[in-house]
Amino acid sequence: MIYWQIFIAFFIPGILGYGGGPASIPLVEEEVVERYGWMSTQEFGEVLALGNALPGPIATKMAGYIGYMEGGLLGAFIGLFGTIAPSLILMLGLMAILFKYKDSAEVKNISKVVKPVIAVLIGFMTLQFVIESQSALGNIQTVAIMAISYLMLERMKVHPAAVIALALAYGAVTGI
Amino acid sequence: MVKTDKIRYSNVFMAFFRSGMLGFGGGPAVIPLLQKEVVERYHWMNDDEFGDTIALSNTMPGPIATKLAGYIGYKIGGLWGLLVALAASVIPTVVLMVLLLGVLQSYKDVPWVQNMSQTVVPVVAVMLGVLTWNFVQQSQKALGWGVAIFLIVISIIVMEVLGVHPAILIAALIAVVLVPFIKRVVSK
């Protein structure tokens, strides 16, 4: 049942992604690409690129779009619900307890111990995208685009939306 | 709870709409913009309350922007406040996303559009690479290099070599941390 699958695909990243929406990106990829096969790695990259070029929270942009692709308007709603509701309900429900213990060492430690796991997940995803790019564009273009976008993003602090627009424009021009 | 009326709901909508539409880089980038709206413009909370709210939402998993929108919306306007704040921070960008990718999808058999979706992959790789490094640094800051590297190596072995689903590893780690805490709270 597709709606149930959509719910699960976004519920798991929503309930395990410590560190905000960006931390849930590799967990979403795990469900959407690896488990359910709704899209290829490259298509996921496309979604991620446009998601990064647009403002606002990334997790809900992905959930809304992928949910819509797989299950129409209701699918989008279920994807969003799966992303937002579990952690929000937990937070509102446990508010009194959490407020009392929010400075306790163990509660703080939860999000700390999960961070290395997220680092590994995103690291391997990075690798996957590099390999994907090598096979589609070859070594020279991959290295060149990566170097230029790194310089623009991190050294020159160019807006991510502008860098992605530039990469898309380059692809359009060289593809004609 | 603050008294609610129609004008307040439109304020709630605008506060979360503006911070959602102006924040690039995912939910965490939205926090400073939200602080401006919630604390400085509308005075729904003071700085301390806002800081507490951030700390509180960091104890829970999932996207930070929606937890903040839901919690703050609920505090100022009850269930309707919650729904208005969530809708304002989520729906506009999802609609943009569906429209933009929809256009791209309908031309995906055109060669130059295909090429566009390939040239953007290395840029995504760089963004993810930077994000990886962010999380490595956060791990190091929170745990020190020793523990951080130990957990990174364990994660690589468990997830990438043994092929265990990340959910299982994360749940196990949370359990290890949380069990002594629950024991202590219960025995009190």
TrEMBL record, chain A:
Keywords of the record: Cell membrane, Membrane, Transmembrane, Transmembrane helix
Residue ranges annotated as transmembrane are 7-28, 73-101, 113-131, 137-153
Q: Where in the cell is it found?
A: Cell membrane
Q: How does it sit in the membrane?
A: Multi-pass membrane protein
Location (main, coarse): membrane
Instruction: Determine if Membrane is one of this entry's keywords.
Output: yes
Give the source's domain of life in one word.
Bacteria
Family assignment from sequence similarity? Belongs to the chromate ion transporter (CHR) (TC 2.A.51) family.
Q: What is this protein called?
A: Chromate transporter
Q: Give the originating organism.
A: Planomicrobium okeanokoites
What broad taxonomic lineage does this protein's source fall under? Bacteria, Bacillati, Bacillota, Bacilli, Bacillales
